[in-house]
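OP here, attaching both records as promised.
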Amino acid sequence: MVPVENREGPGLLSPKGRAAETEGGGAAGGGRHPPRARVPWLLLSEIFPGGIRGRAMALTSSMNWGINLLISLTFLTVTDLIGLPWVCFIYAIMSLASLVFVVVFIPETKGCSLEQISVELAKA
């Protein structure tokens, strides 16, 4: 990709002077997203068994976009109502609740194949 020139100042240019679309190595490096933004999509594509991978990716992608939309639509309104510190506190509590859920309910799968994990989860 050819970097976008901006004659009015840095604008959308990254600190290195490249356009935001070229972060991560351009088209060969994954396009417009920096490497850390691609990690969840890579992990999601690897954790589902082949038989349900397409449907599971569709569901998780829809949930991801839906939650992002919900947060985007409500953030400014809620910030005006209760203030930024309380909004950040609520998001922190939600993140901690998610962490507790993962630690308590998600089994350790290190060193197991997807088939072994499926058998173990089917028993539960």
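Record two, same layout:
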Amino acid sequence: MAANSSSTGSKPSTVAGAKPAGPSAEQVVSTFQRMRQEQRGMASKAAELEMDINEHSLVIDTLREVDASRKCFRLVGGVLVERTVKEVLPALENNKEQISKIIESINTKMQSKGRDLTEYRERYNIRLVGEGEGEGQTGASSGDSEGGGSKSGAGVLVS
């Protein structure tokens, strides 16, 4: 019961002086880290697809140098299929184009996510650990010791 009365006692002063019922610091941090993780996932997927394009280019360049009637093998859905170079080469070029379009789409989504992330950081004054250590670090620590951490202008520090 003591925990409930102390948390309720501190909340009204923060809510009355700041925005009405904003998210807690933990919610802000978890949302920020989720957004960063989504952006990292997009970046790793784009890098993986870039490697696929490089592999496609290597195979396409190799197949262009051989006779079109020569047989080759292609893995389709986990099954190795025998085809001719003449049949496989257009399919590989088409796949390469489709992968390029997907990469462009991922890159635009990643840029949009980056803008959202920057906007979120600015809205909640989020600072990353190690970011801007030379500037304002002493002012922030003295502000926190004087009770500045409970003000709406105080930021969230994310590791």
